[in-house]
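Hi, here's the filled form for the chain we discussed.

Project: internal
Contact: R.S.
Residues: 292
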Amino acid sequence: MPEHTGRTYVVTGTDSGIGEVLAARLEASGAHVIRCGIGETADVRADLTTAEDRSFTVEQVRNLAPAGIDGVALVAGSGDGDVAVRLNYFSTVALLNALRDDLARAPQPRAVVVSSSSSLSPGDADLVDACLADDERRAVAIAGTLVARGRGAVVYRSTKIPLNRWLRRTAVDENWAGAGILLNAVAPGIVETEAARRGVLSDPASARVLQDALPQPLGMPGPVEPVAAAIAWLLSPDAAFTTGQVHFVDGGAEAVLRGEAPFATGVRYGPLRMTRMIAWTVIGRLRALRAR
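And the returned structure, exactly as it came back:
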């Protein structure tokens, strides 16, 4: 039996690229997919950059799936200034929050967002902070200023950095992990989508810069299908003990850029956690002594 049989998923960005490939893959594996996009093939047509369209999308999803949904894959994104801010971060967080209760009613709920390997590079701190403060108006204004100053290239990754941070905070709290909802991200490298061909890959000089900024030992651009496959797995019942992860499907860029760093120093525990650990260690030893 196909791994997604009987499951219903909401997928955004299905007009092209990763979202289109993912929707087709899920349907071929037995799922019912509610396609969200701006084209005529979408089941729900909305651009998601406004609060009204986000609310409309949630309403339509509930109308199209009265029995509930099993998973959400938020793929829609943009690299264009204020649209990137509204779409990449704020619409993603808004839709997840709005559909959380719907997911909580499913027996094996999953949510996956699309990040980017570009989030490994430094972003604009003010834009990141505005996103995490849930201040959409300020974030859009900052993005506009960055574009006007010729720093528009930093906007895209400055929307993915707070998305990763929000996900790491949120996935493990009682409303998500505590409710059994698994929340993860897939962070692609540069893959061969139409948007990439029109944008970052269209200029040979820019493409050479990318090869240094995001080195991909497995090749640049990479294929779309493995990214869609990673998202599909995280949506499946098999992904039953994974949450809060940013899964890089980037041709090796994260390994090149970060090397051993994440594992070199180990976890640093805070005073409260350390005190609890010591206390329970002592209690455990005392119980062992009494049992002799």
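Let me know if anything looks off before we file it.
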